[in-house]
Amino acid sequence: MSDVRNVAVVGAGSWGTALALHLARKGLGVGLWGRDADHVRAMQAEGRNARYLPDVPFPATLEATSDLEGLVSRADHVLLAVPSGGFRAVLHRIAPHLGSGGLIWATKGLDLDSTRWLHELVLEDLGPDRPWGVASGPSFAGELARGLPTALTLASPDTDFAEEAMAWLAGGTLRVYTSDDVVGVQLGGAFKNVLAIAAGVSDGLGFGANARAALITRGLAELMRLGAATGARTETLMGLSGLGDLVLTCTDNQSRNRRLGLALGQGQSLEEAVAAIGQAVEGVSTARIAVAKASALGVDMPICSQVARVLFEQLPPTVAVEELLSRDPKPEF
Ligand SMILES: NC(=O)C1=CN([C@@H]2O[C@H](COP(=O)(O)OP(=O)(O)OC[C@H]3O[C@@H](n4cnc5c(N)ncnc54)[C@H](OP(=O)(O)O)[C@@H]3O)[C@@H](O)[C@H]2O)C=CC1
Ligand SMILES: O=C(CO)COP(=O)(O)O
């Protein structure tokens, strides 16, 4: 039984709100920070997050706030759920105000400017003594928010902290597994978004189930090669935060990354598609990072590279697929 009573959830989008709802339903006191004061006032007045999860009312134990510094200074632990593009700035902002507890983030992505893993930013800002961990896995916000069964992996270099965090995060319909493979868990969560765009493009072009399954498995091969070059463990990439999340987001239209790909495959521009989705589509910036990592590490990532060319070089999706199919023959592994 955990003695954690108060958790600060930073980021009042879909995922932060879903996690906050889950924790509040477990009986924890949860403060949910949103950056937009008008949005926070609306959540306080309506007792729900009409912008991101309109159908799920807040329990009495969940309070929205725009006082970030006050919230994190009072919390036993902090759960960060902002998009990767805002991670660094929010981390800088909260670092001087954290209480004595740990930091967990549920962001999927890397730092675009530096292409560094988020745990490297955390170590730089919070130093070696602050316990931290990253939570990732196949988890659509709407499903967790509605109390549907979900499983995540929580990775931390500190095994005791991972077990403690698991105790207050898990329960009800959320099962949490621990891991110490912090690179593997971040790698799967981030780069599957690029592959979900690829699967969406394929389906948007009207290609069939064969093509989708090929993209998922050859995409997994790209994750494995990147993992081998960065120290991730194969079993992590075959687990919830790798294959689990890859299959989820490549096959279900709740995925915003897959929906972006569908729209591109059906002829929409990147700008039109991102605007229509209106929420974080992390695979766009992660596609740039994939190209940078593949080149810096000498890793072959043809699907991720073609996604980046479709996104940023106006390569027509049909040509991207033709080029993938006409690559030189080679052994599967
Ligand atoms: N949604 C999901 O099912 C899941 C999402 N994730 C991950 O969680 C992270 C957050 O995504 P999600 O909640 O879905 O995104 P949403 O688009 O639903 O919400 C984004 C939230 O972050 C805020 N925000 C946007 N940019 C910044 C910034 N620069 N600084 C501070 N806050 C910012 C937005 O504020 P505003 O409303 O004012 O724009 C909004 O509250 C992503 O990394 C995503 O991959 C992980 C698992 C599941
Ligand atoms: O990461 C997610 C589910 O695990 C959410 O995927 P999207 O960001 O593509 O919606």
From TrEMBL:
<protein>
    <recommendedName>
        <fullName>Glycerol-3-phosphate dehydrogenase [NAD(P)+]</fullName>
        <ecNumber>1.1.1.94</ecNumber>
    </recommendedName>
</protein>
<feature type="binding site">
    <location>
        <position position="108"/>
    </location>
    <ligand>
        <name>substrate</name>
    </ligand>
</feature>
<dbReference type="GO" id="GO:0005975">
    <property type="term" value="P:carbohydrate metabolic process"/>
</dbReference>
<dbReference type="InterPro" id="IPR011128">
    <property type="entry name" value="G3P_DH_NAD-dep_N"/>
</dbReference>
<keyword id="KW-0521">NADP</keyword>
<feature type="binding site">
    <location>
        <position position="282"/>
    </location>
    <ligand>
        <name>NADPH</name>
    </ligand>
</feature>
<keyword id="KW-1208">Phospholipid metabolism</keyword>
<feature type="binding site">
    <location>
        <position position="257"/>
    </location>
    <ligand>
        <name>sn-glycerol 3-phosphate</name>
    </ligand>
</feature>
<dbReference type="InterPro" id="IPR008927">
    <property type="entry name" value="6-PGluconate_DH-like_C_sf"/>
</dbReference>
<feature type="binding site">
    <location>
        <position position="141"/>
    </location>
    <ligand>
        <name>NAD(+)</name>
    </ligand>
</feature>
<keyword id="KW-0594">Phospholipid biosynthesis</keyword>
<comment type="pathway">
    <text>Membrane lipid metabolism; glycerophospholipid metabolism.</text>
</comment>
<dbReference type="GO" id="GO:0005829">
    <property type="term" value="C:cytosol"/>
</dbReference>
<feature type="binding site">
    <location>
        <position position="256"/>
    </location>
    <ligand>
        <name>sn-glycerol 3-phosphate</name>
    </ligand>
</feature>
<dbReference type="GO" id="GO:0046167">
    <property type="term" value="P:glycerol-3-phosphate biosynthetic process"/>
</dbReference>
<feature type="binding site">
    <location>
        <begin position="11"/>
        <end position="16"/>
    </location>
    <ligand>
        <name>NAD(+)</name>
    </ligand>
</feature>
<feature type="active site" description="Proton acceptor">
    <location>
        <position position="192"/>
    </location>
</feature>
<comment type="function">
    <text>Catalyzes the reduction of the glycolytic intermediate dihydroxyacetone phosphate (DHAP) to sn-glycerol 3-phosphate (G3P), the key precursor for phospholipid synthesis.</text>
</comment>
<feature type="binding site">
    <location>
        <position position="255"/>
    </location>
    <ligand>
        <name>sn-glycerol 3-phosphate</name>
    </ligand>
</feature>
<keyword id="KW-0444">Lipid biosynthesis</keyword>
<feature type="binding site">
    <location>
        <position position="141"/>
    </location>
    <ligand>
        <name>NADPH</name>
    </ligand>
</feature>
<dbReference type="InterPro" id="IPR006109">
    <property type="entry name" value="G3P_DH_NAD-dep_C"/>
</dbReference>
<dbReference type="GO" id="GO:0141153">
    <property type="term" value="F:glycerol-3-phosphate dehydrogenase (NADP+) activity"/>
</dbReference>
<feature type="binding site">
    <location>
        <position position="137"/>
    </location>
    <ligand>
        <name>sn-glycerol 3-phosphate</name>
    </ligand>
</feature>
<dbReference type="GO" id="GO:0051287">
    <property type="term" value="F:NAD binding"/>
</dbReference>
<feature type="binding site">
    <location>
        <position position="35"/>
    </location>
    <ligand>
        <name>NADPH</name>
    </ligand>
</feature>
<dbReference type="GO" id="GO:0046168">
    <property type="term" value="P:glycerol-3-phosphate catabolic process"/>
</dbReference>
<dbReference type="Pfam" id="PF01210">
    <property type="entry name" value="NAD_Gly3P_dh_N"/>
</dbReference>
<dbReference type="InterPro" id="IPR036291">
    <property type="entry name" value="NAD(P)-bd_dom_sf"/>
</dbReference>
<feature type="binding site">
    <location>
        <begin position="256"/>
        <end position="257"/>
    </location>
    <ligand>
        <name>substrate</name>
    </ligand>
</feature>
<dbReference type="InterPro" id="IPR006168">
    <property type="entry name" value="G3P_DH_NAD-dep"/>
</dbReference>
<feature type="binding site">
    <location>
        <position position="108"/>
    </location>
    <ligand>
        <name>sn-glycerol 3-phosphate</name>
    </ligand>
</feature>
<keyword id="KW-0560">Oxidoreductase</keyword>
<feature type="binding site">
    <location>
        <position position="245"/>
    </location>
    <ligand>
        <name>sn-glycerol 3-phosphate</name>
    </ligand>
</feature>
<feature type="binding site">
    <location>
        <position position="108"/>
    </location>
    <ligand>
        <name>NADPH</name>
    </ligand>
</feature>
<dbReference type="InterPro" id="IPR013328">
    <property type="entry name" value="6PGD_dom2"/>
</dbReference>
<feature type="binding site">
    <location>
        <position position="256"/>
    </location>
    <ligand>
        <name>NADPH</name>
    </ligand>
</feature>
<comment type="similarity">
    <text>Belongs to the NAD-dependent glycerol-3-phosphate dehydrogenase family.</text>
</comment>
<feature type="binding site">
    <location>
        <position position="139"/>
    </location>
    <ligand>
        <name>sn-glycerol 3-phosphate</name>
    </ligand>
</feature>
<feature type="binding site">
    <location>
        <position position="192"/>
    </location>
    <ligand>
        <name>sn-glycerol 3-phosphate</name>
    </ligand>
</feature>
<keyword id="KW-0520">NAD</keyword>
<dbReference type="GO" id="GO:0046474">
    <property type="term" value="P:glycerophospholipid biosynthetic process"/>
</dbReference>
